[in-house]
Amino acid sequence: MQPVATTFFFYFLSAVTVISGIAVITRRNPVHSALALIVALLGQAGLYLMLYAPFVAGVQIILYAGGIMVLFLFVIMLVNIERAQKEEQFNKQWIVGIVAALALGVLFVLVYMKGKGLFPQTVAQLPEGENTQGIAMLLYRDYMFAFEIASLLLLVAIIGAVVMAKKRI
Amino acid sequence: MTERSSHLELEQADKTYLDSNELIINMGPQHPATHGVLRVILKLDGEKVLGTECVIGYLHRGVEKIAENRTYTMFNPYVDRMDYVAAVSNGLGYCEAVEKLLNVEAPSRAKYIRVILTELNRLASHMLWLGTHALDIGAITPLFYTFRDREEILKIFEKYCGARLTTHAFRIGGCQYETYDGFEEDVTKFLKFVTPKIDEYEQLLTTNRIWVERTRGVGVISAADCKALGVTGPVLRASGVKWDLRKAQPYAAYSDFDFEIPTGQSGDTYDRYLVRMQEMRQSLRIIEQAVGKIPDGPIMAKVPKVMKPPVGEVYHSIEAPKGELGYFIVSDGSTQPYRVRVRPPSFVNLQALDQMVRGQLVADVIAVIGTLDIVLGEVDR
Amino acid sequence: MLDYITSYLKSDTTPGQAGNFFWAFVYILLIFLGLSVAVIAMNWLERKILAHMQVRLGPMRVGPHGLLQPIADALKLLIKEDIMPAEADPVVFWIAPLIVVITAFTVFIVVPFGPTHAVTDMNIGVLFMLGVSSLSVLGIVTAGWASNSHYPLIGALRSSAQMVSYEIAMGLAVISAVLMTSLNTDGTGTLSMIGIVQAQQAQQTWFIFKFFPLGLIAFFVFAVAMVAETNRAPFDLPEAESELTAGFHTEYSGFRWSLFFLAEYSAMIAVSSIAVTLWLGGWMRPFPHWLTGETWDLVFSLFPGVTFVLLALITFYSTIRMPKHPYFRVQTIGLAGFGAVLGLIGLLLFVPPVRDRIQDIYWFAVKVAGFMYLYIWYRGTFPRYRFDQLMKVGWKVLLPIGLGVLIVTGILGVVLS
Amino acid sequence: MVPITTLHYLVVAAALFVLGVIGVLTRRNVVIVLMSIELILNAVNLNLVAFSRLYGLHGQIFAIFVITDAAAEAAVGLGILIAFFRNKETVNVDEVDLLKW
Q1: Which of residues 94-113 of A touch B (CB under 8 A)?
Q2: Going by beta carbons, is chain B in contact with chain D, meaning 3 or more pairs sit under 8 Å apart?
Q3: Residue B17 has pLDDT above 60, yes or no
């Protein structure tokens, strides 16, 4: 499955992602933010597909959009939002924050401009048809230990979440 | 009993679902599972029921008051409108109560006809209960099966007295109508027809895993609690008390027949289901015996045209499909009763709802309302 | 241009892989139309079959034997007033049904109706299907929240909890099937939907019979989880009529509600397609390795035509049995016409080139239809689970079984290879 | 048209990162702050996957680990949020000014 009309889809997906990203941080209602974030995540999954990374795209959809965001929506529905919506949405240091973040952005761009030549110009040959198999090989051979640690991390997270969210255990 | 969860509390029903432990939900009066216009205010902790309050009276028609302005005969059809799915039983109780007041006894042929019709009515009532109860728990098919078979009973009623639901089948002192030609054959045919059908219902439900899981251990009530709350009928018997007015204080011709009182042990919804299924089989037995030895003779005792019972009072109760149905009638010697008080089984049994559902889940409330087998016409009168 | 169109017909890949947009769009259109027809037919069939299970007739008035009833219903839903609760969140209320419907349809682009009959084949086919179908939870949660009412909210929370927990059991069952694909001669497994069926072809068995009874148990886990996943009886708690009136879509009416309806049925077809692909050999005809040879090929290739001719004969039989009253004349003619159309399709399916092209699709559809019948049968038979019991079944029964099957399959795979 | 190179993806990732940082630094609602963190993690993921196009699959493995971390972080973060909300009846970050309550 070759990516087609690369230029169009790249700009389209990037626009979707960035615009939804803006929506995430500007919406008053957290549910709207969450929905915008889901759109951003799906757009990003599309970008992954264009980067010949279908497995990561699949994981992005199934875990991020289908799992984590459902958790977010659940929590948003559980905590009262009516009052929070009427309050001031941005904190007092918002100007400082935006200036700092934009400075960071400028820094990024500068670094990219300077360091453009450092990237290899040739694209690595990644056979798309064996992406999943390749990831499996790496994950269960080279990164076995990290994988186990990650599972432990998830276990700890589960226990932690239960401990904190439960009224009485 | 429950502390009053007043309307005020309903107003300030929490703004946050997480933080406050209690959520108050209004179930009914327009709710598909409350069997009419019962309104139940549920106090919930998540899905767990902390307490209930029944709000009744949406179907109140003042039946007891109407009685005071009607003659004894004129009031007879009104009682059919209380428990409209078991109208025959209601009529039987009223007629026998007035007969007791008048010191009249119905002839034995009339008594046999009464038994047959009342037991058929019990079957019809239990069938309706089974269908709706199963529907509440999510099994849709039994409803259509039971309605198909209940139809046969209603056809017999229709042939006998012209009405299907509110039959007004009996009169004070006996029966108005002689049985139609082929009544016995019809009833025998029906018995043959319905016996395998009851097996069919049991096949659908009794060993169905989901049904058992949904009903076993749900809405448990102990025998002592039943007695304390005045609960009667299958609900009481499922808790292990062998109490059936047909045996305890035989009326009509019940002393002539051989039948058993099915009882349960645990007093949960599953036992109540089993008890009612057994009762249906016992009813078939009674009908079979009654049809076999129905005597000849008059169907109406000598009753004065204008009834003026002597001054006094009477309490007569029968075993209606839902429990003890009692009539307390005070006569002042005139043609109209001074006071009629009905002890409806549904009303009394409904009291047990709160006790049965506390600590259970919302879905169980539905199952318990179904298993109590209430008819709102009778609760509100 | 013509070469472009015909080039795909000669190729042996899906249009997506061949990069043939024309055919990709044709397939998308066909799937969309086919799904809509399937949902309409399913609606009618469900009502009819359920009715006959419950000793009643079902729809009989609109058209002969109620054949036009779904169309009448659809029309009614389309022209109904569109009601939105005053306190609802308008944007989210509007988006929610769209999310559900789009996810339900998107899934179908990787469903292989035949070795070349799919929009595309992805390296991550199964993962994609599971992922996209799990997105419908979002639609349900937002629908419940946007209605701004207690019952829909509880219904939505219930159903999302249910779908999220059953997804795990479902995923485990799927993984064991994917593990089975790695038992090919070349030793590499695949997540691609077409690859999975080809693995079954190569191993000469449906995965339901693989390592008997392991495949069967995994299939069972999946079959239960998929019913829960689509919120159908006996797991239809989110829509428990007797408890929550209609669950998350209580406040929806008219066209929006029909979108939920459409999504529910296409989700049913989607999960059934996964089950058929993973365990029941996808597009393979029965006994492809026992009953081989030209004769058997011919016999099985006649099946589609025979099915339609049989349907046509049944229709003609009902036409004869229609009441002979002028009132029914139009209906009788209509029914005869319907029968004639079915018969013509049947005859068309006997023509050799069509016959060979339609084979795979036919067998796939037949297997999916079997699942659809099961869904209806469940609905007619089972009472509803309670919420805690539902969770118990998901977490304490299906999850351990799924894990066990996965582990044993893995061990067997290693031992045998 | 300019062909799409890795740099393009990096610019998109940078934009997302900046958006995430703005969200974290300026919003008061904890839920949205958490979502902004997800945005930042995603920007990193996009970088990793874009580089994996040049250097091989290792970047994608890292992306998967980042997603795992994101799941753990979301679970714990939302757990804290619920505990916090239950005690303080608010979801604003700048009201989290006590170490103990």
Answers
A1: none
A2: yes
A3: no
**Six-digit token pair at C169?**
């059991």
CATH of the domain at D11: 1.10.287.3510
> Is 80 exceeded by the pLDDT of residue C89?
yes
Chain segment A126-138, per-residue pLDDT in tens: 666 677 888 888 8
> Pick from C53, C55, C241: which is nearest to B148 by CB?
C55
Token pair 């007035």: residue: B98
Arithmetic mean of pLDDT, B140-153: 89
What residues of C are in contact with residue B213 (Cβ under 8 Å)? 385-386, 389
Q: What is the residue range of D65's domain? A: 6-89
DSSP of C259-298, one letter per residue?
HHHHHHHHHHHHHHHHHHHHHS-TTPPSSTTTS-SHHHHH
Q: Is residue D95 part of a domain?
A: no
Whether D101 maps to a domain, the answer reads: no
Give chains near B: 3+ CB pairs under 8 A: A, C, D
User: Tens of pLDDT along B181-195?
Assistant: 888 888 888 989 999
pLDDT of residue A152: 92
CB contact under 8 Å between D89 and B19, yes or no, is yes
Render pLDDT for A62-96 as a digit per residue (tens, 0 to 9): 888 888 888 888 888 777 666 666 777 777 788 88
Residue D58 lies in a domain: yes
Q: What pLDDT score was predicted for residue B4?
A: 45
Give A-chain residues touching D28 at CB under 8 angstroms.
87-91
Specify the number of domains making up chain D: 1
Q: How far from A144 is each of A108, A151, C409, CA to CA, in Å?
A: 33, 11, 21
B306 close to B316: Cβ distance less than 8 angstroms: no
Q: What is the mean pLDDT of chain B?
A: 84
Domain-embedded: residue D29: yes
CB-based contact (8 Å) between C121 and chain A? Answer: yes
Q: Pull the structure tokens for residue B80.
A: 């059919």
Contact: chain B with chain A (3+ CB pairs below 8 Å): yes
Cis peptide preceding B29, ω within 30 of 0: yes
Structure-token match 């004969």, residue found: C313
Whole-angstrom Cα distance, residue A77 to residue A73?
6
Q: CB-based contact (8 Å) between A84 and chain B?
A: no
